Amino acid sequence: MEHFGARFKRFRDVHGWSQEQIGFELNVSKATVSKWESGRAQPRLENLSEIRRLVARYGLSLDYLIDGIGRADGGGRHVAEAPPDYPAAVAGNADEAALLAHFRALKPSRRKGLLALLED
C-alpha cells in the first residue's frame, strides 16, 4: 500500500521540484523532506498545515496525501495531473502568472535575494 511519502514525492515530482525547493516552501530541510518521502518520518502537525496550504493551490487535498482515500480533488484530477491553468488561476493577469512561474523556478537562495530586493 502506498504511504504518505510516496504520494507526496509524486506530487513533488509532477511539479518538477527538488526536495530542497519544496522544503523551502514548507520551511523544512531537504533531509526532512527525504525522510517523509522514504517513510522514515512523518510530518508534524505544524508541517501538515503548511503542506495542506501548498497542495491546495494545486487542487490536491491533504486527506488524499495522508490516507489515499477519495479523489485528489473535487474535479477528479489525480495527483499526477497538474491543473492546466496554474499559475494563471491564481494570478491577476498574464504578467503576474509569468512572474510567479519564474519565481517558483528560482533556487531558494535566489528567491530570498529577490524578496530582499523587493522589500527595499
From TrEMBL:
Question: What SMART domains does the annotation carry?
Answer: HTH_XRE (SM00530)
Q: Which residues form the HTH cro/C1-type domain?
A: 8-65
The lineage's top-level taxon is Bacteria
Q: Carries keyword Oxidoreductase?
A: no
The protein's matches in InterPro entries, at most eight in alphabetical order, are given as:
Cro/C1-type_HTH, Lambda_DNA-bd_dom_sf
Task: Identify the keywords attached in UniProt to this record, alphabetized.
Answer: DNA-binding
Has keyword Metal-binding? no
Pfam family of this protein, just one? HTH_3
User: Listed GO molecular functions?
Assistant: DNA binding
**Identification of the protein by name:** Helix-turn-helix transcriptional regulator
Native organism: Marilutibacter spongiae
